[in-house]
Design brief:
Number of domains: 2
Organism: Sandaracinus amylolyticus
Helix content: over 70%
GO molecular function: ATP-dependent diacylglycerol kinase activity; nucleotidyltransferase activity
Largest sheet: none
Number of helices: 12
Radius of gyration: 25 Å
Keywords: Membrane, Nucleotidyltransferase, Transferase, Transmembrane, Transmembrane helix
InterPro entries: Dgk1-like
Structural class: mainly alpha
Protein name: Phosphatidate cytidylyltransferase
Shape: elongated
Number of strands: 0
Length: about 280
């Protein structure tokens, strides 16, 4: 913009000369742009500016939500969070598959959920605890989580609920759907998403969600549980599709709770259908 403006101001254009007021305003605009243009690395300055603005935005958004006014939450690109997502799902899936007793699995799952809700209560009672936890988990946290229940707490709660059903394959597919589908959708949607549809989600991100969760689910059912191709495709596909549906429409319910629950429902019903 600056280069184009300099060229426009300095070129010998009879029409521009005939309009000195216009040229004067262009010169003023050129000076303003020069004054406020980044003096070093544009990306670094933008990231620093965004880091300063995001907490203020979420403070304002929190007060508006309290008045029943919907304001979208900020979800900036965060590869560390995506990796953390995959790690949690992998760890949970490992416990689910390797621990031989459902009672032990359920105790572990509910202990995690209880720990999460205990931290949520402490953050509401003591603001310093909230500041400490947001600093501690800052690399993997979204800005809005300073004012709302942390997604990890919803994640732990969903695992506890699913473990209580004692249904191995639906639980495993729910973890795969959340652990692969959600972060892949976030990466693809932010990087290549162009066509927007439900709740600001992109078609590209949703397709990536379904494909990643479907492939991961089929690999789990065939490689770990020895299922045939037909039931693996049907059951994993149902989990992936309902998980993607939950990700699209979970505006008031955190998707870390909605996605695994809906994926479990899809896998369970498809499992009944294919026997």
């Amino acid at each position: 913009m600056q280069e184009a403006l300099r060229e426009l101001v300095r070129r010998d254009d009879p029409e521009a000369v005939a309009a000195p007021a216009l040229r004067e305003r262009l010169v003023d605009l050129e000076g303003t742009l020069e004054q406020h243009a980044p003096k070093s690395d544009l990306r670094s300055e933008w990231l620093a500016f965004r880091a300063r603005v995001m907490p203020k935005y979420e403070e304002l958004a929190s007060s508006l939500r309290a008045a029943s006014i919907h304001v979208p939450s900020l979800r900036p690109k965060n590869y560390a969070r995506n990796a953390f997502h995959v790690f949690n799902a992998t760890a949970s899936l490992t416990i689910l598959e390797l621990v031989p007793s459902w009672d032990v699995v359920i105790v572990i799952a509910w202990a995690g959920a209880l720990a999460g809700w205990t931290m949520e209560a402490s953050r509401r009672i003591w603001p310093r605890a909230n500041d400490f936890m947001m600093k501690l988990f800052g690399p993997v946290a979204h800005p809005h989580e300073a004012h709302r229940v942390n997604s990890a707490t919803y994640y732990a709660t969903s695992i506890a609920i699913l473990a209580s059903t004692r249904e191995l394959i639906p639980c495993a597919l729910a973890l795969v759907t959340l652990g692969l589908g959600d972060p892949i959708a976030a990466i693809v949607g932010r990087r290549w998403g162009r066509v927007r549809w439900v709740n600001g989600r992109s078609v590209e991100g949703t397709l990536a969600f379904v494909v990643a969760a479907w492939i991961g689910g089929v690999a789990l059912m065939i490689g770990v549980h020895g299922a045939g191709w037909a039931p693996a495709l049907a059951v994993a596909g149902a989990a992936a599709l309902l998980g993607a549906f939950a990700e699209l429409y979970s505006r008031k319910v955190d998707d870390n709770l909605a996605i695994p629950v809906m994926a479990w429902v899809g896998a369970f019903l498809a499992g009944i259908a294919v026997g």
